[in-house]
Amino acid sequence: MIRSALKIIPMSDTDILRAGTRVLTTEGEALGLLAKSLGPPFARATELLVGCKGRVIVTGMGKSGHIARKMAATFASTGSPAHFVHPGEASHGDLGMITRDDLVIALSNSGEAPELTDLIHYTRRFSIPLIAITSRPDSALGSAADLTLQLPAAPEVCPMGLAPTTSTTMMLALGDALAVAAMEMKGFTAEDYRHFHPGGKLGKTLLRVSEVMRGADNMPLVTESDAMSKVLVVMTHKSLGCAGIVDSSGTLIGIITDGDLRRHMEDGLLTRTAADIMNRSPTTVEPNLLAVEAIKILNEKARTQLFVVEKGKPVGVLHIHDLLRAGIA
User: What is the pTM of this model?
Assistant: First the structure.
């Protein structure tokens, strides 16, 4: 039926909200059933995912195919190399993308999608591990698979009970559960995650201080015996609003900021030394700290810059402007 022939039924806001609430509640209950249904097959599937020497091939037809694409993307971004293979294209040459070292995960609520037939036969012929995600373990897909993750019985939430809704929500959640379980089993870290997400806001939040800070050539450093006239020259030249004071071994022992200069302006500032003016308890950060954590420190201390130290010695300076330019602050 074409769209222009559909009859629009007037609904109040209350009726619309009731429909939306029913969908979310029903699907939420289905996810609860799915969580309770997890058992040894889920653990075995996670082990297969982690132990895969090749790539994880995720496949499905129709709405299941859309979920399969997202599942493959999630696996790939969390340390399990994966890609989606369309079952129809598989029958016309894309089976060549699947090797003996791969793992195939096939999604089909009914387990009877005819488009999956060639792909299933291919995995059986070449002994490629096959995991089925289906509501019917006795289906063609479920019967052929090495391992079946069964979706619990739950009604589709469309008015006719036909459109894939609840079933695809469970598939999506099950894919996330597999990905996260595999991440934990692999000891996947935030640094690992960043390798796959260098762009966008997410990549920026995973930047380290060492990647944003001003390096050694830009550090305004003086000694505690230096006259304040020299300190002013160094601070002006480096334009970071501060100077770090180091001892004879190069260890940071203090800091002088623009605020310190203003506070001592009437105390014969130019007749004094750095030791007279400096703050002997400077707030510092380490180079491997996440930049977003450094922002928190800057905000808490009401500061615009921090010295970056390693084993007590300054290796750089982090300024709020650097974080702004990097799109983090």
Answer: 0.67
